[in-house]
Amino acid sequence: MDLYRVLLVDDEEDIRVGISRKMDWTGLGFALVGEADNGQDALELAESLRPDVVLTDIKMPFMDGLELCRILTERLPASKFVVFSGFDDFEYAKQAIQMNVSEYILKPINASELSAVLQKLKAELDRERTERQNMETLRNRYEESLPMLRDLFCAHLLEGRVDPGSGLEEAHRLDIKLQGDVWVAALAHVGGGGGRDAMTSLSVQQLLDENLPQERCRSFLYNDWVALIAGLGEEFSVYSFMGNLDRVCTLAGSYLDLTLTVGVGAPCDSLTGLVQSAAGARGALEYRALVGRGRAIYIGDLEPDNGVGLSFEEVDERSLTAAIKLCGETEVREAVETLMEKVRTANPSAGQYNLFFLELLTYLLKLTRRSGLGMEEVFGAGFSSSVQATDFPSLEAMGDWCLERCLRIQTLIHRRQTDTAGRTVERAKEFIRQHYMESDLSVETLCAYLHLSLTYFSTLFKRETGMSFTAYVTVVRMEAAAEALRSTEEKTYLIARRCGYEDPNYFSYVFKKQFGVTPTKYRTGGA
After folding, report:
1. For the chain, how many helices (H) and strands (E)?
2. H helices within 198-273, ranges in order?
3. DSSP 390
4. Per-residue pLDDT averaged across 84-108, rounded?
5. 288-315 mean pLDDT
6. Which terminal residue of the chain, N or C, has fewer Cβ atoms less than 10 Å from its own Cβ?
7. Does residue 228 share a domain with residue 179?
8. Closest among 231, 198, 195 to 212, alpha carbons compared
9. Is residue 1 scored above 70 in pLDDT?
10. Beta-carbon count within 10 A of 465 CB
11. pLDDT digits 0-9 by tens, 41-64
């Protein structure tokens, strides 16, 4: 198991040295990853080191240990805090408790006492880690969630929200048993005096489960319907399925005083084809006024050609959107080629072919508008949305046209994202330049001004500038201080205050750390 990370903070070097040398860190299950002699430096170190435990003195220059704990409690909520103090003061202890400090130790620090504290903290950290990783607990929670997860997966199948190729694997993972060579979707519509309340739907679902082979059929509540997915084969054909459903419809009338009509879609040879089968089941229900209610209606009897049609589905939209927005050119080419292969495989009629293109074009127009792009930027000057699939001499030509538009959208979106990131960082820099003289300037204040989360801003700012917010503010303040020292006779403590440092001693400390000399020597040419 990895060692827990410790940050040690104390302004007395001999105490830091004593603690770091006397403790058997590895034996206790810890690693001392950093040291600081004041709260300000510790705060910056903690941002990068992400310690599990912070050992800190209370009385320190520039920022005391309690203020450090208060800030880090917000930024590192899983960390443990131990504070040292040479003052047996109840107020300190009370404040420490309010800061979620785990332990309060009086100086001088005894190695055996600190070891005991660390052992106790390790036990707490181990317990918390175990609780999060306890497989038995997770397994129980997973088992409790399985019925809901199974229903959600089945609903996603009917909505085309399962990635091609992963359907069977996901069904197996969820222990959904659907034996069959092909699959079919059905939707049960409730009419009559029983209405459509939840209890009625559950009663219909129970009736279906009792009269259908469980190894081949799965029922679940779906919008206004009770939905079914069935696996078909030689011994259980679509007409065998229809016979069972007709029986259930009859029983619903007898037992529940309901008029139950079930629409059955066309069989498909993959689970991802169930989106079309469900569409067929909805279509079959639309015929109930014509062919009669209280029975099963098969779309294949009414529309013999209603097999797996060609349409630009939600799963196609998601795949293409992900490739354009999140991936590179190669992935966009692959996504477009997948769509064109889908057209080739379907061998559609001229009407289906043109409808598919219009659906794809509508998607591209919507994506362009949602992304804030100009139509002419993407489609060229004088573009008319009346373009049709028949305007292209071949499927390959249509694919090339679509690919070019997708790549244009990708380029423009990525350019806009880069420009937006750059503008955001420039706004942040300008805000810092305008407010660096304020001692309470913080990353939280800046994020509130920019309306960004702290995590996102910190990552963005570090990526664009190569330094953290705290480090950048320090640079700006030090540059301003150096300029004031060179060009004015103003007293050092006033320059410190004008640069955001209430404590002139801390200002001198940071200045020397930045330039290698004190402010006084810098002014007299000692730099």
Report:
1. 24, 10
2. 198-211, 238-256
3. G
4. 70
5. 78
6. N
7. yes
8. 231
9. no
10. 15
11. 898 899 889 999 999 988 887 788
- Mean of the pLDDT values across residues 66-86? 87
Packed helices 350-370 and 395-435: angle between N→C axes, nearest 10 degrees: 10
Tokens of residue 67, six digits: 């203020």
Which comes out higher in pLDDT, residue 186 or 288?
186
What does DSSP assign to residue 268? B
pTM of the model: 0.52
393 is a domain residue: yes
Sign of CA dihedral 132, 136, 142, 144: negative
For residue 64, give every residue at least 6 positions away whose Cβ sits within 8 Å of its Cβ, in sequence order, or none. Answer: 39, 58
Closest CA to 291 of 253, 254, 261, 266: 261
The token duo for 118 is 């660390």
Distance CA 519, CA 527 (A): 9
How many domains does the structure of the chain reveal?
A: 4
Strand runs labelled E in 14-171 = 30-36, 53-57, 80-85, 103-106
For 433-453, the pLDDT digits (tens) are 999 999 889 999 999 999 989
Q: Is residue 341 part of a domain?
A: yes
Q: Tell me if 212 sits within 8 A of 244, measured CB to CB.
A: yes
DSSP string, 430-492: HHHHHHTT-TT--HHHHHHHHT--HHHHHHHHHHHHSS-HHHHHHHHHHHHHHHHHHH----H
Mean pLDDT of 470-489: 92
* Confidence check: pLDDT of 337 > 90: yes
Cβ-proximal residues to 109 (8 Å cutoff; 6+ apart), any chain: 15, 18, 19, 84
Return mean pLDDT, the chain.
87
- Picking from 411, 426, 456, the residue at the C-terminal end of a domain is 411
Amino acid at 271: L
Residue-number span of the structural domain to which 293 is assigned:
150-302
Last residue of a domain, one of 105, 133, 161: 133
CA separation for the pair 83, 101 (Å, rounded): 7
d(CA 431, CA 446): 7
Q: What is the mean pLDDT of residues 136-161?
A: 85
Residue 186 pairs in a beta bridge with 228, 264
CA angle 317, 322, 328 (to 5 degrees): 130
